[in-house]
Please model this.
Amino acid sequence: MVNRQTVHIRLGRLSWWTMVVCLLTCTLLLGVGVELVYAEEPVTGEKGQSKESSLQGLASPDATTQNDALKALVDLNDIAFLPALTALNDGTLHVWRDAPGSEKIAIILRNIELDGRETISLLHPLTGKELGKLNATDALTEGQLEMVTVRSGEGRRVVKAGLDRLRLYDPDVVVRRATAAKLGNGGNPAVVPLLEQALSGESHKWVRHDIEVAINQLRLDEADEEVRRTAAIRLGEIKGLRALGRMKALLTEEPIEPSDSVKAALKGAIESIESYQTWQTVVGSAFNGISLGSVLFMMGLGLAITYGLMGVINMAHGEMMMIGAYTAFVLQEAFFYHLPPSLQDSYFFLALPASFVVTAAFGLLLERSIIRFLYGRPLETLLATWGVSVFLEQAARWYFGDLTSVNPPVFMRGGVEPMPGLVLPYSRIFIIGLAVVALLGVSLLLSRTRMGLLVRAVTQNRSMSACVGISTRKVDSWTFAFGTGLAGLAGCAISLIGNVDPTVGKTYIVESFMVVVVGGVGKLAGTVLSALGIGVFTKIFEPLIGGTGGSIYAKLFILGAIILFLQVRPTGLFPAKGRAAEVGT
Amino acid sequence: MSNKWNQWIGLGAASILLVVVLPFLNSLSNDSTFWLPDYYLNLFGKYLALGIMALGLGLLWGYAGILSLGQAVFFGLGGYSIGMYLMFNIGAEGSKYGDPLRPDFMVWVQIMELPWYWPPYRSFAFALASSFLLPALCALLFGYLMFRSRIQGVYIAIVTQAAAFAAWLLFSRNETGLGGTNGLTDYKTILGYSLLAPSTQRVLYIVTAVCLLGTYALLLWLTRGKMGHILRAIRDGENRLRFLGYSITGFKMFVFSLSAGLAGLAGALYVPQVCIITPAQIGIMPSLEVVVWVAVGGRESLIGGPLGAVLISGLRSYLTTIAPVMWPFVLGSLFVATVLLFPQGLVGIPKQFERYMQRSGSRWTSGSRRAPLPAAASGPSDHPDQLSLGGEEGKAAEGAVTAGAVAHRLFGSRVEGDGANKVDGGQVAEPAEERAEPILRVEKVTVSFEGFLALKDLNFSILDGELRFVIGPNGAGKTTMLDVICGKVKPIQGKVIFGQATNLLALQEHEVANTGIGRKFQTPTVFPCHTVFDNLLLSLKSRKTVGGTLVELRMRQSQERLLEILEFVGLGYHTQTFAGVLSHGQRQWLEIAMLLAQEPKLLLVDEPVAGMTGRERDKTGVLLQAIAREHATVLVIEHDMEFVRHFSNTVTVLHEGTLLCEGKMVDVQKDPRVLEVYLGREEEEAHAANH
Model:
């Protein structure tokens, strides 16, 4: 990374520690910022009266009474009733005879206490407050609890319909959208008024979209031709992807849509939606490509730095990424075990700097114990580090097992939806942000700090630097540690979007090398360009090639393209220049 | 000589043991105490097959220095070739689905028709040929792509590893019709004989052992001769070899292809003994295991590879039965330990021990550490001081007489009589009429290094038989001009014509060298791990292609000619010294000798006397004059003005990429332009004097 001959002193010389602290603070702030973006307001329906009496009616042994009570409660459109209805559906709604003559309706929750006892908590069906707690064995034997069951087939239908209807008011956006979709696909025109009612109270952009799609999808089956036509046109306008199947079926399967004008409207809508889908795939693939490129960039950056400086190709780099991922995993486990649920997700703030530091420590150890003895022998270093990687992979498998996963923190779930049907996950956005921070950090580090100056000096002319008094060994150790730490960061990022298992290193190592080979080690820009290029092209070719083997053939294609590219530029996009750069031959 | 005989005897003993004794032990009845169980014979047969693959990599990596991390791909190609043949031989009765046309797995995966690459493998001859030729051809193509673009050391490792990864991905897919991740298995017969019968397995074992020994003998013969020198020279100094006229790409492709073919052969021998081939045997890990075998066994000698293969495979079989979890730990540690502690492998342990004893011995006596010798160095020469200290100028004159006589014999002088009278003063009268032809013309050449013009519209010519000196301050473009002539750097405009009509710009470095232009570089770039004699052997004018070298292997090299050249430059006593041990001045002479061995028409000599003592300088000057006199043209770049003044006739001055002036040294030294360039303007001097 030696792209300047003079050292600019405009910003002043920053100490290395300042830079590192700034880098870590940026990553923390990024995490916090993302959490603040995530904010949702729950939606409530209308309030109703005399809920308690209707509740009591639920427990009635008489089917008709039960059904009436059910309908009354459902018609209230009050989400407060949703837990109770769900409990009734799941079989956890019970009658509790806490004292002779007194009956309460309660939702039960089974617990296992720390000492191993089984207990049952009883929660108020509407407020969720805990009414009492019983020992499991006692409650059942003494007959204090009796499950409330639905007595008739009609009752079950009411329960199901009621669930669908009430879920339109669920605080969770995801549930509301799923319910809207389900109702749209259900083919029952009677729910249209329900949907319209929900629509009028809905504020979230995408739930409104889904409800509208559902409404129009159901209207496609109306008797009135004009209604159908308008619905078809409207679906094309709002890009109702879910209705696509139904619209196509109307044109091809029995009973086929009779009216020509409606058919034309349907065709137009289908075309509009399909072209939108292609566009959506392109954008989605490009985004995925950029996020993959970000991971590859962080991996390739560490490799390029160590190769440019020391001529060392570190085959254990993938395992360093694995170490970073496992650090995140261990931290998550620790937090989950020791902290209450509200604080559990804060493990992530600690995981980022921790992966960096832990992996850098490993890298330092590796350099001090093995690599430093192999200075000037790149092929031997390659082999020795491969041995280390095999060792580390097996160690991870032996200690952690083959199946571990890191759950992303809550604020990382979900994503931004700029267009209907296209979700850009927060986790991937975060990874891109992290890569940008890493890029800025490294380039500032190299160009503005004293440490960076030393690194560039040693890369350009090692023997002269030693003569001038620079401790090349120290520079080697710390640079190697830093490069490895970047891989750890990449590993922590990876844990957000995939599983953490011992083979995660091998999955990315070949592509990381390709990034270094294609980008060359002369300039930072080379690594950025090649990482983005490889990531984006891989993800774009995947849907183009299609089929089950799409990703595999895309990878093969990219590998072939790289080999051909090397014909034209064998040392990469930005090779290291100068007579001192003949390392590695 | 005895060493060679020892080797052949050892080979013979091993052959008898492997090919005769072991199968015989296996064929004894099961109750006999000496009976070798089928299981072990089969296992050993597997190891020997893998040994063939290790031999190939030993040649590729140990000799030519090309670390390929994709050998397992070629192994797989060979293995799948035989595997496909064996699949056909299961027949309808032996298979589960009983489909007469397609193997079982195709029925299961619902591949309806046999893909186009399957039917030829019904024939055993085709399968066998393909197991060797298919990997060799693939390697030829892949090698061409890699070596043509001059990809270096570590990058080759990375690219071959990526190729191994890609191959593994491809072979694991079901739609490629090769059995997917399950591979090809369930074989029943080969050439009509059942694969499960011990006698068939015994025969297979014998065939494998014979192949291994045959391959070893072949490679031994190959590397003992010139090919071995060339390969090791490629490892040690590829660029130098290129300038000697060798087509490096061709040699690398050859050795890569040969090792791939051997790996394929190993696969073909392995599969009938193991009765299964899967993508797990192709890919990154298996390729790296081959590298471990060669690294542990020792890559400097051919036997290291098979030795390592047998030992490590044995270790693996043992460990994976008693403690499978431990194997990767052991493997990883082996990698690290070998690289750090035993870089020469098992075969090199005796030497390492010896050197360690030597070093600690010398530590006792002299109290300081000797610098480590080159990897395979033998003792120092007998008369190290002979050249530098001995001889006054009289000796230099004497040297000139012999030099002249030798040069006369070597080059067939155009000038009758000797050159001994013309030694001092360096002014040699050259009949102008005879040498009027310019042998080299550089016309309007401009070279740009990213905007910086190293040469600007340079016009330069040199006459046939001249001894021309080129001088100029640093950065004038002298070395760049030589780079352009030799083909190392391409100008953005201009022409370079050699002889009457040869356009040098259209040729690659080795082609330029083969047209009769030899270059001596600024820093001596001899091959340090070769003896002086072998250095010359490599430079000798001959057909420097792969084919030519293979043909020449059978011929004896003419020693007299080489010894004459060595006498000529004064290294006659050092024929068996390793070039890495020579002094700086001696290396310069060696390089000049290598130049002479090429029988060039034009010598480009870059700073020949840098770092030499006075006497060595004189000797070199006399040498150059002798060469120029006897039918070769010499162009010398120098900074030492005394030397130039003493030996030159015509001098060319370059400055900032253009020709400043030309003429006799005395005239050039008085030229005001030259004075200005070297010494600064007179006004500036006056200025400096005032301050």
The radius of gyration of chain A is 31 Å. Residues 318 and 507 of chain A are 8 Å apart (CA to CA). Chain A touches chain B through 45 residues (CB under 8 Å).
